[in-house]
Amino acid sequence: MDIGNATSVNQFILMGLTDVPWLQKVLFVSFLFFYQLNIAGNLLIITLAIRDTALHAPMYFLLANLSFLDIWFSSVTVPKMLVGFLEDNIISVSGCIAQMHFFHFLGCAEGVLLASMGYDRYVAICSPLRYCSIMNRLFCIQLVLASWLIGFFSSLIHSIMSSMLPFCKFNKVQHFFCDVKPVIKLACSNTFINEITVAALSGFLSTCTFSLTFLSYFYIIVHLFKARSSQRSMKAFSTCSSHLTIVILFYGTAMCTYIGPSSEDSIQKDKVAAVLFTVITPTLNPIIYALRNKEVKKSIKKFFTFQS
């Protein structure tokens, strides 16, 4: 293709999940409900972590930051997706790159934060006497800042490389938001380097954070097996169950999406996976913690009793 004579594309059309009218309406109502539940649930977790002194602990500080990330992570994609169910979903190229940047920025930050939460559980169970000295306020703030910085700079690489590609003919993004893999497929030049970078960088970061989380739980399990009290072991591991469930939900979809080559079949599967980690998982996170964590359940009861 002669790129010099081609017409430059200045906007993209997001093709969405389906073009069936009745299904679009069903999905609009369903995803709007999930999005509202996501905002309400995560705002509740943040409010409880701030107001309730019983939750002024490192674990809940990290949980509140996870809820903050979840709100914005969904807000980057879901409102635009909802618009697409009602009308043609058009986005400028610069807006598309911006959406791509913030999506990967917040998603990567969440992965790093989940690893930090795994380390928090490791220290709490394996070194309880040193917990307060290790997981002090300054260290917790550093963990949160590290998650934001790692997410920002890793996403910046994708954004810069994608913005340098020439888009000169095709403008239909086969997705409900501007994700890096379907966007770079529209470029008029060879995107091999971009695809390798996506797989390598995303694979490296997700593998590292998942491995660190796995390592934390490996040492936790070894420690609990050595513990004499089975009751104490079960009580200790119950504090990890909600975090472990969220880790499985998050990495189970994210790693399958970004590790591997891009193809027509993979992009269709990626849409389904993307719905899980942009709509479903952020909504389930506060529900999982509310149902499986006794301190959070007590705090919720206290909060609504006080409000009434």
Overview of the structural elements:
This protein is mainly alpha-helical and 308 residues long. It has a single domain (8-307), classed as Rhopdopsin 7-helix transmembrane proteins, CATH 1.20.1070.10. It contains ten helices and three strands; from the N terminus they run βααβαααβααααα. It has helices at residues 21-51, 58-86, 93-126, 131-134, 137-163, 180-184, 192-226, 230-258, 264-292, 294-307, and strands at 11-14, 89-92, 172-173. The protein has a three-stranded mixed beta sheet. The longest helix has 35 residues, at 192-226. The radius of gyration is 21 Å and the shape is globular.
Question: How are the SSEs placed, and which strands pair?
Answer:
Elements: E1 11-14, H1 21-51, H2 58-86, E2 89-92, H3 93-126, H4 131-134, H5 137-163, E3 172-173, H6 180-184, H7 192-226, H8 230-258, H9 264-292, H10 294-307
Parallel strand pairs: 1-3
Antiparallel strand pairs: 1-2
Helix pairs in contact: 1-2, 1-9, 2-3, 2-9, 3-5, 3-7, 3-8, 5-7, 7-8, 8-9, 9-10
Instruction: Give the name of the CATH superfamily.
Output: Rhodopsin 7-helix transmembrane proteins
Distance between the termini: 67 Å
Average pLDDT rating: 87
Major sheet description = 3 strands, mixed
- The quaternary structure here is single chain
> Which structural class fits the helix and strand makeup?
mainly alpha
CATH architecture: Up-down Bundle
